[in-house]
Amino acid sequence: MARWTIDQPTARTLDGIVALHIRIIGGHVNILPTDDPVTFEISDIVGEPVLATQEAGILTITYEDLTSGGLLNRLRPVQLSGYKDVGRRSTTIGLRVPRDCPVEVTTLSAPIVSAGLNSKTRLRTASGDITLDGMGGEVEVSTVSGNLSARDSTGSLNYNSVSGQIAVAGGRLSDFSGKTASGQLLADVGLAPSGRARLASISGEITLRVPAEASATVELRSATGKLDSDFTLDRRNLRGRSHLSGKIGSGVDPATITATTVSGSVSLLRRDPDVPAAIPRGNA
Questions:
Q1: To the nearest whole percent, how much of the chain has pLDDT over 90?
Q2: Which sign does the torsion angle of CA 241, 246, 249, 253 carry?
Q3: Least CB-packed of 169, 244, 251, 268 within 10 Å?
Q4: Does residue 265 lie within any of the structural domains?
Q5: Which of 222, 232, 171, 223 is CA-nearest to residue 197?
Q6: What is the total count of domains within the chain?
C-alpha cells in the first residue's frame, strides 16, 4: 500500500486506479474525466493533514482518524461533526479520473462538483451543494440541507434530502427518483422508454417538465397540495386526498411518472419542441 500524509499543496499522477473514495470535512471537491492516468491535486489545507492511500487499485483521500476499523465506510456526513477541530478542517481536492471509475465522496460542508463520469457515483454531504454536469451511469446523492444542480444527465439519478433542493435541466434518464421533506424538486428532463420518475415531498413543491412528445403513465397525488398538469389527466378529489392520473403520449413503451406530497404543490408541465430544457417553475 502506498501512503502519503499531506500538509502542503501536492499533485500526483497514479497508474492502476480503479475506484475513488473521498471523505473530508470542509473545502471543495472537483472531479473531472480524463483518458490519461489518474491525477489528484490537494491544496488549501487547513487543520489536520490529509491522508492519501493507494491500495488494491483504490485511491482514498481522507483523514487519519477517519480510517480505522472500517470507519470510512460507515460514517454518515452528519457524524463527521463530532471530530476534533472540525470547524478548522478543510482542503481543496481536484481529481481527474477515467470516465468509468466508480466514485464515492462524503463531506460535511464541502461542495462537490462532478462531470462526465459514466460509472457508479455516490455523493453524500450534510450541507455542501452538489453540481453535476453530463453524468451517466448510476448516480446517488444524499444530503441534509445541501442542494443538487444537475445538467444533461443520462442513466439513473437518485436524490434524498431533508431540506435540500434538486434542480435538473436536460438529459434523458432511465430512472429518476427524488425524495425530500421540505425542499423543492424541480426537473426538466426526458425519460427513456419504460423509464421511471418517482418524486416525493412532504411540504416542498414538485415540478416536473417533460417533452411534449413524452409517453408515460402518470399518477400525481397530494393530501392538501394543489395538483396541476399541462397534459389531460383524470382528476379525483376525495376527502383528504387529491389525485390526477392517466396516460400521456402514444408510445409502445411508456415511462412511469409518480409524484406524491402531503402539502406541497405538484405540477406536470409540457416542454414544446425546439425549446431548450431549463429549470421549471410550477403552475400550482
A1: 84
A2: positive
A3: 251
A4: no
A5: 171
A6: 1
